[in-house]
Amino acid sequence: MRYAQIVIGPAGSGKSTYCTEMQRHAETSRRNIHIVNLDPAAESFEYKPSIDIRDLIHVDDAMEDEEMHFGPNGALVFCMEFLLENLPWLENQLGEDDDDYFIFDCPGQIELYTHLNVMKKLLEALELWNFRLCAVFILDSHFMINASSFISASMAALSAMTTLEVTFISILSKIDLLSKKSKKQLERFLEPDVKDICANDTAVVNSKWNQKHQMLTEMIGRVLEDYSLIKFAPLNITDEDNLANILFMVDNCMQFGEDRDIKMAEFDAPDEEDEDNDDGYEEGRG
Ligand SMILES: Nc1nc2c(ncn2[C@@H]2O[C@H](COP(=O)(O)OP(=O)(O)OP(=O)(O)O)[C@@H](O)[C@H]2O)c(=O)[nH]1
Ligand SMILES: [Mg+2]
């Protein structure tokens, strides 16, 4: 079995930073996490990827093609489809070592996760190659400023969750950048009570459109709430305990380490009592 976090979310939400910090944090407990850069348009990031889609195709290759004339977004989708057509390349790059742990740093084009099927197909391939997966949806915590943007961001997360059909964790990033006041407000969004959020929404008070549609925002919010679909975990990259908690949560979702415990249990020397009575039952049973 192998393990992979699939880090997705809107542009600039902090995906690559999450990957860098997770890898660094894991190293402090001597855990080796490989990062795969899946963004063909990436210009720079702080980690050193073990695998880089840009070795296969770069977004400029697609944009500069004289026949295709792609703009940046079309070119990016083209690159992801090109990757799908060249899955043996990725399979080969990933090797086949048991217990390997990867983090995939994905592009920020939200349509890849909400309605196109490119990512879904990629995840299916990974599952076929014996990967256990957890999608990590990163959302900038500055979305918390008002109810309507929080709810539309939650809808995007929900859409990705239903499209990708793998275990899913949503994270609010850049907590270290929030003011004291915003940090206080954060709690409202971690265990959201939609009615309360909407009632205190300054954007609703200030905009005619929002006043008119407040009821709709509230109803959509209530659906999300009723089905416990909006649960976000806060991420503060300056807090090692926080990083440890998030890694623990994601590991749990993938049952990382559980198989290893089973393997170790198999190698435990049997008790003497058990040797005498090796039918697997305690005395007096059966
Ligand atoms: N202080 C702080 N800055 C952050 C954090 N996460 C991201 N940033 C900054 O936000 C900007 C965007 O972060 P990235 O990690 O590149 O975001 P991304 O989601 O990978 O962006 P794309 O790949 O372009 O979609 C960078 O300038 C980061 O340094 C965070 O948790 N704290
Ligand atoms: Mg990035």
Describe the protein:
- The protein is α/β, with parallel strands linked by helices and 286 residues long.
- The protein has a single domain, classed as P-loop containing nucleotide triphosphate hydrolases (Rossmann fold).
- The protein is 50% helix and 13% strand.
- The chain is built from 15 helices and 7 strands.
- The protein has helices spanning 15-28, 59-63, 72-85, 87-94, 111-114, 118-128, 147-164, 180-190, 194-199, 202-206, 208-212, 214-226, 240-253, 258-267, 272-276, and strands at residues 2-8, 34-37, 51-52, 101-105, 131-140, 167-173, 232-234.
- A 7-stranded parallel β-sheet has the order 3-2-4-1-5-6-7, sandwiched between helices.
- The two termini are 35 Å apart.
- The protein binds guanosine-5'-triphosphate and magnesium ion.
- Guanosine-5'-triphosphate is lined by residues 11-17, 39, 108, 173-174, 176-177, 237.
